[in-house]
Write a structure and sequence with these properties.
The complex is a heterodimer of chains A (about 160) and B (about 450). With about 160 residues, chain A is mainly α. Chain A folds into two domains: about 90 residues; about 70 residues. In chain A, about 75% of the residues lie in helices and about 0% in strands. Chain A contains eight helices and no strands. The longest helix of chain A is centred in the C-terminal third of the chain and has 27 residues. In chain B, helix 2 crosses helix 3. In chain B, strands 1, 2, 3, 4, 5, 6, 7, 8, 9, 10 and 11 form an eleven-stranded mixed sheet that branches. In chain B, strands 12, 14, 16, 19, 21 and 22 form a six-stranded antiparallel sheet that branches. Chain B has a five-stranded antiparallel sheet with strand order 13-15-20-17-18. In chain B, about 20% of the residues lie in helices and about 40% in strands. Classes of the chains: A mainly alpha (about 160), B alpha+beta (about 450).
Chain lengths: ~160, ~450
């Protein structure tokens, strides 16, 4: 349990790379945590926890995909497997670096843009609410959000690359 | 659309079927783009954490937010026994991690609330499940039971931040913390330090003005930590107290110092009993004035100015022994205008009405007839950062006290205006809104008197 809490951000990011929405990510993580608890005896030492946990999370995520696919456009299973390989290789340090870079990068955006960037996580309808307050339509805001996030990602990537080298 | 934006919009669920198919092909062919995708997922995870943290600490600047790893570290060190960990897991059950932080992985339940008035984004009905967040108790007493089994009884005025099932922070106010075996290691943080409870009960009081926290063991054992100096002290047994301030951690025995934790000084609060209103220059009250809030705005042209005024009946209070008086207003999120059109800091003035011919104002009066700042005297100012959309604001000073004493036994009207206007260019500026007595969640204007 302690190990799970410690590695939760890394596991969550990993699950997020496979599953297309946050609800299914949380469901999969919850199922994975129960399985981990049941199989904890198999774990040799603490250092082996993250790779071991990722195997379980990966399995739970990929088996959840079929259900998610019913009401959402999702990438193909083959591509998701490839992405999972890529994400599995990211270590915990990298996740911490991303998080750190995010703090720096976010501060380069204006206050309204920061608000928009964080809006999708404040529950359904927050972006819509912002649209109602301003001149832009919901669609236009989502387009802007896509571009802002791409810009943020570029900044984060730059920072992470420097940290790694 | 460039592939980067395409990935982001996929994560937002904003791509059509064809666009997803196109992205699928790109990702299949390009390992570098797959790495980008993994990074974007990690960024999405981080952004969500930031959003969550800001929802707890809305006023905190970006640069001050710590990475999540350090946020949970306290909790980790605090979970001292495997037994506690098992119980946390079992008792959290399906609620644990359920469907996103905003859909409330609940960490506690509000057990009871006695005459409690809240300023809180969390549910305030007894029996409600509470997600991480801030609860501000304006008056009364409330009991919060964490899923870990720890129980915190909070006495108003207080602000309690629920961090997790094993950690809470008391920003100000008083509380009694009871920790059963299942929650040994529960951490109660204050602005000055923190206490780890090794079982049973302790009391804590945070004095914001003195910038110090007092901890007193009622029964059992606690460890008090002072991060500034790195000091740590264990207190065992009834009456052992520790006081932490910025400079030091001081241990005392309650027996010799019987008043080190005093009960809160007597405070009396009075409200406006619905006698509050707002007004705007064009008098289009029906369209622009929401009676649940007191609207305040000042524009460069003056055309869209709003001001508010409200009255208190002082006849129920004996002002003879009043030591301090405070006028308290609760800011609530605005529904009009843009924050970006505001200066970073907005200043508000509170005026006390002295022209008695204006004292009988009606709730639905006209701009021309209503009490103006010129009809009274300036009692004080307060400031609100544009990043803030909730919180308690107001004034506490000699001018206010003298004004009240001068009008002892009668009714007093206060006029609230925004002294600052907007910054140029960027659309209509925000109308600040404070709760009136009709507001569904927040408490309306209040006068607080404390007695010597």
């Amino acid at each position: 349990m302690r190990l799970f809490v410690k590695h939760e951000p890394a596991l969550r990011a990993f699950a997020r790379s496979i599953l297309p929405d946050w609800n299914s990510v949380e469901d999969a993580l919850q199922e994975a945590s129960v399985t981990m608890w049941e199989k904890l005896g198999q774990l040799g030492d603490e250092d082996g926890f993250l790779p071991w946990a990722k195997v379980i999370v990966r399995f739970k995520c990929l088996s959840a995909i079929a259900t998610v696919r019913r009401n959402r456009h999702v990438l193909s299973d083959e591509v998701l497997e490839l992405i999972a390989d890529e994400a599995e290789a990211m270590d915990a340090g990298e996740i911490v670096n991303v998080r750190r870079a995010l703090n720096t990068c976010l501060s380069q955006f204006s206050a309204p843009h920061q608000e928009l960037l964080l809006a999708p996580y404040a529950g359904d309808g927050r972006v819509k609410q912002l649209a109602e307050q301003g001149p832009k339509s919901v669609n236009a805001l989502y387009k802007l959000l896509g571009r802002l996030r791409a810009k943020l990602a570029t900044c984060v990537r730059g920072h992470v690359a420097t940290e790694m080298s | 659309m460039d592939p980067q934006t395409q990935i982001q919009r996929y994560l937002l669920g904003d791509l059509t079927e064809d666009e997803v198919a196109e992205l699928d092909k790109l990702l299949n062919d390009d390992p570098e783009l797959r790495r980008e995708f993994a990074l974007a997922a990690a960024m999405d995870t981080g952004l969500r954490e930031v959003a969550f943290e800001r929802s707890i600490e809305p006023a905190e600047a970006v640069s001050q937010i710590q990475p999540a790893t350090s946020r949970t570290r306290f909790v980790l060190t605090a979970v001292v026994s495997v037994a506690a960990a098992v119980i946390v897991m079992v008792s959290l059950g399906p609620a644990f991690l359920r469907a996103g932080l905003f859909k409330a992985a609940s960490v506690a339940t509000l057990v009871s609330s006695e005459n409690a008035a809240w300023e809180s984004s969390l549910p305030t009905t007894p029996g409600s499940e509470l997600a991480p967040g801030v609860m501000k108790l304006v008056s009364g007493v409330a009991t919060v039971r964490f899923t870990s089994g720890a129980e915190v009884v909070v006495e108003a005025p207080a602000s309690l931040t629920l961090n997790s099932t094993m950690k809470a922070k008391l920003e100000y106010g008083a509380a009694v913390v009871t920790v059963p075996d299942s929650a040994i290691g529960f951490v109660l943080e204050t602005p000055n330090g923190y206490a780890v409870d090794y079982g049973t009960q302790f009391a804590v009081r945070v004095d914001q003005r003195e910038k110090q926290s007092d901890f007193e063991v009622i029964d059992g054992e606690i460890a008090v930590h002072h991060p500034e100096t790195g000091d740590e002290v264990r207190l065992t047994g009834q009456g052992k107290t520790a006081t932490i301030s910025e400079a030091a951690l001081v241990v005392a025995d309650f027996e010799q110092q019987s008043d080190s934790i005093e009960t809160s000084a007597d405070v009396i609060r009075i409200g406006t009993n619905g006698r509050s209103t707002s007004i705007l220059r064009n008098n289009k009250r029906k369209k622009f004035i929401n009676p649940e809030v007191l609207s305040v705005k000042r524009t460069n042209s003056g055309k869209w100015d709003y001001r508010s005024f409200f009255a208190f009946d002082l006849s129920t209070v004996n002002l003879d022994n009043v030591g301090t008086a405070r006028l308290r207003l609760n800011l609530v999120p605005s529904t009009r205008g843009l924050v970006s059109a505001l200066p970073k800091v907005n200043r508000f003035g509170i005026y006390g009405l002295t022209d008695q011919t204006k004292a009988d104002w009606e709730i639905e009066c006209l701009w021309e007839d209503s009490p103006r700042p010129e009809d009274g005297i300036l009692l004080g100012m307060f400031e609100i950062n544009r990043s803030e959309n909730r919180g308690s604001f107001g004034i506490q000073n000699e001018e206010l006290l003298n004004f009240l004493k001068k009008h002892d036994g009668s009714s007093v009207t206060f006029i609230l205006i925004r002294e600052t206007t907007q910054i140029n260019g960027v659309g209509p500026s925000l109308t600040h809104m404070f709760a009136s007595d009709s507001h569904p969640e927040a408490v309306g204007p209040m006068l607080e008197f404390s007695f010597d």
